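Entry for the shared binder. Reason: the reviewer on the internal report wants the predicted structure included alongside the sequence.
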Amino acid sequence: MAALGWLTPRRRSATARSVLAGEASAEAARKSSQEQTEPAGAEREPEFPVLGDERAAAFFDLDNTVMQGAALFHFGRGLYKRNFFETRDLARFAWQQAWFRLAGVEDPEHMQEARDSALSIVQGHRVAELETIGEEIYDEYMADRIWPGTRALAQAHLDAGQKVWLVTAAPVEIAQVIARRLGLTGALGTVAESVDGVYTGRLVGEPLHGPAKAEAVRALAAAEGLDLSRCAAYSDSHNDIPMLSLVGHPYAINPDTKLRRHARDKDWRLRDYRTGRKAAKVGIPAAAGVGAVAGGTAAAIALSRRRR
């Protein structure tokens, strides 16, 4: 989700900050939840997910896996509309969004700059204010960008009686809004510190990205009594290979080039909803101009907080 190394597209072992970010995100996710087709001729796969397996769960990345594009950019559009940052920032943000859309991956320098800007922008704002805004922004920019095929995969796990969690570098507040609107169990997201309901401008650990995601899933599984070998994980990005490697049922969804190659080498299942092909069956049949102002990632990346 540290210097520029926190978003470098290569595998690395978890650092102490990754572990802290993962554990903090798992804690926030649990608290929130408490409050709240195969080709012809192919060999038939065993039924999955397994009905009634309560020690299994599913973990879904958000950007380009569940939602088309980056939640941070969509969230940033809403924050710009609400005057959280000024017009002079748009040129830089628009370039960052264009990079993401064309390259399909985050640029470490852009994201580091976004993180630093976001912390200064949200410092002093109340957590409740951002939670309310997140609900509005979901309706304005995100609801129509959910991939129907991935949504159906999540529903298959829910119908089997399993919990389903989003796992994302996006702020935990907006991640929880999306999870709630989709009827999922909850969300793990980047956690930023707040004191007495006000953001301090500091993160808890680091953004929930790469190895930190894996640590969050590991911590949540331990707290929930899950057997990771019976769990599933879904992602589009090679940055999430640590998380995908934790579970017994990894899926590459709309994969980038590196993840597609890795998935084929490891014989992981792949699903691609970008090509117009009919979505595959997994448990149940799969259902069938961001522009300049979309680049408000600098106002969105660290809006999550540690509840105290």
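Summary line for the report: Confidence is low (pLDDT under 50) at residues 1-12, 277-308.
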